[in-house]
Amino acid sequence: MSGSDVFARLAGDFEGLPDAESDAVLGARLHLHLRGEFDARAGCWPGRDEHDTLRRTAHAVEVLHRLDLDADTAAMVRTGGNWLINLPGCDALPHAERARIRLYPSRFKTLAYLRRFDDDLLRRDFLELLGLELGGMVRGVTESDVLTTCIVLDTLLTLERAGRRFELCPDERYERVIVALRRQLSRWRPETAPTTARGATRRGAPSHPMPRRAAVTAGEIRNTRDLSYTLGLLLHADRPNLAPRAVLNAMQALVAAASALDHGGDLPQTLYAALQLAEHFRGDETVQAMLQRLLHGLRDTYATPDAPRRWDLSYHTLVLRLLLTHHGDAAFSRQVVACYLREAERQQAAERSSLEDELKPVLRERIELQFGEIVELTGGYTDDRIYRVPFAYWYALPDHDAAWRPGHHGRLEASVIIKRSTSDAFSRATSNYQQLPPALRRFFVRQPEASQVRTSGANDGIGTASNGTAYYLTMEDLAEMETFEQLMNGFDQRAMADQHARLIRAAADRIAETVSALFRETQRGPSDFPGTQVARLYLASIDGKLARAIQRAPWLKTPLEGCAVGEARYRPFEQYLASITRHMADLQPRALGLTHGDLHPRNIMMDTACTHLKLIDLDKLTWMGDYAADLGNLLADVCIFRRLATPEREFGLRADQITFARNAEGTLLDNTFAYPAIGRPATVLWQQHLLERAAAFADQLDDRTWRPRLWLAAATALVTRLTFVAEKHIAAVLYAEAVRLLSELARFLESGTPLPALPVPEARPQGTPRAAAGELPDWISGQPLAQALHDSLRRLGLRPETDRATVTYYLPAPAEGALLRLILPRRGEGIARLLLPSGAETAEAELEGLHVVRSGQENDAFGTIVIVNVDSDPTMLLAVARQAMEAATVRVR
Q1: Across the strands, what pairs with 641?
Q2: pTM
Q3: What is the rounded distance in angstroms from the CA atom of residue 183 to the CA atom of residue 574?
């Protein structure tokens, strides 16, 4: 809403009203103007550049927070506060400009007013700004060190009132800042000696003598703004230490500056002076008379809107701040609401609607068209390509009918979704679509008949058939939709808006509803699918993809043997797969049904309200799938892969945040690295809601193993993505997150340790710790037979020592020496391996009935290996151990 729209009829609206009501009418129009300047899509008040946008947003948020009129304005304030916290787009700026934006002082002052000072990065930036303090003055940030220091002190005073100041600024620095500003005020002197005020203004003279203007002698206060701000802050924080003469001189200078508007004075300087006088000298009759004259002059100026229309947004915010300060925040807000605001908004809406109706036929007659940048939406692993094709249309001026004018005011934007593929791919997608039950087709993008597909002979290597023909289809049902990835990228901010939280929950509802509906309508019971589905759906895929990943990146062989991620330590990958293999029967799904097969956020199209959903890329639909596989694949992409794929975004995980350790020689270690926790507020909320909906669906199916299958599905999806990345730091995180999920799953299967609340939490888990002395690893304590065997060996007098993968049993004194070992089995080998000494004379009769393996290595100290299965005879195992112990004791004697 432009200034001319808002202020056009103010002259008539002021007529016949008392001053207070006229001020309320002006306040209402200023409020409307600020609302109209707000860019809801960007979440800020845009300016000429990032710095100007930051300045305008800080001014607008602060004054609208004080006005506190309605829910919509409060939402703008919160969204603007989010923008000030997140500073979107700041990462793309040059380093110096980025630092200038981050340390802009009014950013911190405004967020302190809003009581939104909990963000870690914001507090870090403020500490960096405080670090520029030298002798109490904050140097080198804005054009005025006095102004910078004043804003910093204003921020600290606000934090002090909230009880939060000492967290960021100790008393010593706080006092230095106050003392430095007190010194600046004491050094300030008027340029000329005071003279009487007779003839100083047109509408009457105050009783105080007034200097013509403020100037500097020994200090740094160089204008009315800095003088007024310094005086106001010190009257708040340091009044007992202020010299009365210094306060009087400063007040006289401010009265003179605030009266200068009558003579065409500098408006911002006038308003800064008036603000402090209105706040701190309410009982002074001269000040009150001057303020009344000033407000009357401002109303006259706004009644002729040519000048206000050209004013910077900050001028309007200063005027509104003056009105609030003069009348009092609460009282003035009530006057605005009562006299004007609601009627003004209804009237403006009606006028706008009428104008649009009149313009429609004019625009239709002179429409021109221009394509924008085409964006690929799918990003999957199929040959299909789905693009959003944006275009702009506008009406051409009579002298420029055929010319494209990029900045034209009549320019409007729209887009269509077009699929480009091969004939075979269209055929598969269409066939899958036609096989869908009619009730499920609403969840998928409509697939065409052959007659609806347009062809082109151009061959550019993207999605073309062998004869060089590309096939195109316009997908009308996706025109108003975005990919879920695009939507989630917009939601994923450190300070999450309430609206974004609602949309995230709505998106989780739609996704869960879709996955559940596909599966519910097509599910088949266990009798319809013979064989081990866990192996088919997950383990076989992990084996195949891991082999391909190693071919692409041989260094992965090292972390596969065990790795350290931050403080967490993980066992060899094979051990986790072995544990899962032993428990495949416990993980079997109760039913199989229709799944998408490649459900990731780029294959989900949603409207911006997250109320409608369409799935694209139908070529991987499977009728014998596990709904947990779809959810796990989506979860891994949204929460993990998306952050790695977009390191340039604020939520992205950059390469410099993923660090590999070095050994003593300085060589990078492939199996020891660290990176920040992956979970974000947006993805945590999304997971929570998605898992709640999935749990409700699983209850309907009586599916009690869906959560461990979800962990397995997410790990499988991450291993699959390993085969498509070449960057070492990305592959390291994908592997580490996969092995973390498998570790949590193995602990759950082996010892009943509950799975975490979320697959990708906001805080990093500590992993599987090394077993302490005397503490059994979970692969023994979670197996009754292994636990019983351990207890029996202890009763024989053997002394155990444990680590993650091994329990070694030592002979009692005086014999000493390692006698037996229980170690983790290899994949598919039962629950444990019992290692006997190579020199022990174990009778073959004692080993009969046991699964025995002989070591093929020469000089192996434990060359006889007994495979312990869940149905092994514990009496026979103990007899073998006792015989080995007796033989060792005889040798010692």
Answers
A1: none
A2: 0.64
A3: 71
